[in-house]
Amino acid sequence: MSTMTLPDPDRAVLARRNDVVKQLKKLVPNALLISDLEGRRTYESDALSAYRRVPLAVVLPNTTEDVSAILSFCHDNHVKVVPRGAGTSLCGGATPLEDAIVLCLSRMNRVLEIDLTNRVARVEAGITNIAITQAASQQGFFYAPDPSSQIACTVGGNIATNSGGAHCLKYGVTVNNLQGVRMVMMDGEILDLGGKCLESAGYDFLPLVTGSEGQLGVVTEATVRLLAAPEGARPVLIGFDSAQAAASCVAAIIASGIIPVAIEFMDRPAIHVCEHFVPAGYPLDVEAALIVEVEGSEDEIEYLLEKIEDIAQDYNPISMRRSQSAEESALIWKGRKAAFGAIGQISDYMCMDGVIPLSALPKALDEIGRICRKYRFDVANIFHAGDGNLHPLILYDANDPGQLERVELCGAEILKLCVDLGGCLSGEHGVGIEKRELMYEQFTDEDIDQQVRIKEELDPSWLLNPGKVFPILGRDALKLSIDLTDLGAEPGAGERAEAAEVAAVEGEGTR
């Protein structure tokens, strides 16, 4: 039985659905309101697509005032609300409920102001991550956080889960690049926190809001920090004969005092599938590869790359290739950014999002392999190695009902491993429904009680994004007690992944 359950719907609210829709139409006539079944079905899941619920209705507002009116109405009529951006959440953070409206901010996607004097941009929450950099790039500035889904994911969603990305090693995650938000509380009150100034009076509530996954309010605008674009940047691809050697090299680079702008890790399955998807020139005769990027002047880049390559020599690399052009660099990153989509073409997968100390990286990779073998799943590892944010992709067959429970348990064991190694449950995907019952692995009863008290103070009726983040099944919900000796030998995700890898390198002479 899946532990990623959602609360049973309120039948009284379901019975009032037509009336709720009529009143919303009158309340926000200029907003897009979707009430037909097929239209609502479009929003029945986020990127954790194994779990689906058709919402009561979907509303796409145009302004903060629209959001305020909608939330005030829902508050007064006890209707639940699930905030949503682009639906790229991998943890079920935007999975709707049958008795809730989905409040989708994707139409609120404008750049409101570029202020280079204060080096900030003020944007609406529905703008895509990459669009901020595109708006500021002509003036020589950029927005640093860059999740792999940056062409689709929205800033509001990034704030909800405190997203990072490949370049957060040097520049930090969303909370380090956020200076202010405008947000709407469940009762419709509009609040402004922070702003253009680097310091604000009173308590600093921005870190409380950042990463709160729509539990405390709905962010409609953000003031984000803009940085001057570097003079240049260049990655080097380094291939190793083992994942452990690559992991040890990552720790050695950081220990040397060099902070590259990014260090990305790809193991053999990920390399082969990504290279087949985007011919980026990844080495196909290695067990693991690192993408290490540095930036600065040309002399600085050359100096740093030489130092990094010297460090890598201690771990017996099979290959090292520096990018020689902007086009080559773009291809290397295009392959990495397309990894999840590329692997999704060959198999269903459950993507984990744990964090560990860098010193534990070699052990973590060993243990992840062992855990996946125990549950008889293949795994592709591709992640932000520089800050220890792991993204193991467990390959499984979603058409086999028996595999879903097993893949949940496999993922839960990996996340528990991260906590045991001194890390945490999430780096950037959030908790959602995926990690909700694992919160007890990281937090004490007192810790969770304190978080609940904050939630109840700001949303006493639990109408905002209910069924997420906070455990509802109890401490023993995820006992790893499945009988692993009776799984059978039917072909599944592992066999399909092996076949896909062979197909991906056919004619390359590597196998």
CATH architecture descriptor of the largest domain: 3-Layer(aba) Sandwich
Binned strand content? 15-25%
Q: Which strand order spans the largest sheet, edge to edge or round the barrel? A: 15-12-14-13-17-18-16
The main β sheet shows up as: 7 strands, antiparallel
Shape: globular
Query: What is the count of DSSP helices, taking H or I runs of 4+ residues?
Result: 18
Name of the CATH first level of the largest domain: Alpha Beta
Question: Would you write up a description of this structure?
Answer:
The chain is of the alpha+beta class and 511 residues long. It folds into two domains: 1-229, Uridine Diphospho-n-acetylenolpyruvylglucosamine Reductase, domain 3 (2-Layer Sandwich); 231-434 and 481-511, Vanillyl-alcohol Oxidase, Chain A, domain 3 (3-Layer(aba) Sandwich). Helix content is 35%, strand content 18%. It has 18 helices and 18 strands. The protein has helices at 11-15, 17-27, 37-41, 64-76, 129-136, 155-161, 168-171, 206-209, 243-255, 268-277, 298-313, 326-337, 339-344, 361-374, 401-420, 439-442, 445-458, 493-505, and strands at residues 32-34, 57-60, 80-84, 100-104, 111-115, 120-124, 141-142, 178-184, 190-194, 218-225, 227-228, 233-240, 262-267, 288-295, 319-322, 348-351, 378-384, 392-396. The strands form four sheets. Strands 15-12-14-13-17-18-16 form a seven-stranded antiparallel β-sheet, with helices on both faces. A hairpin with a 5-residue loop joins strand 8 and strand 9. The two termini are 40 Å apart. Residues 488-511 have low confidence and may be disordered.
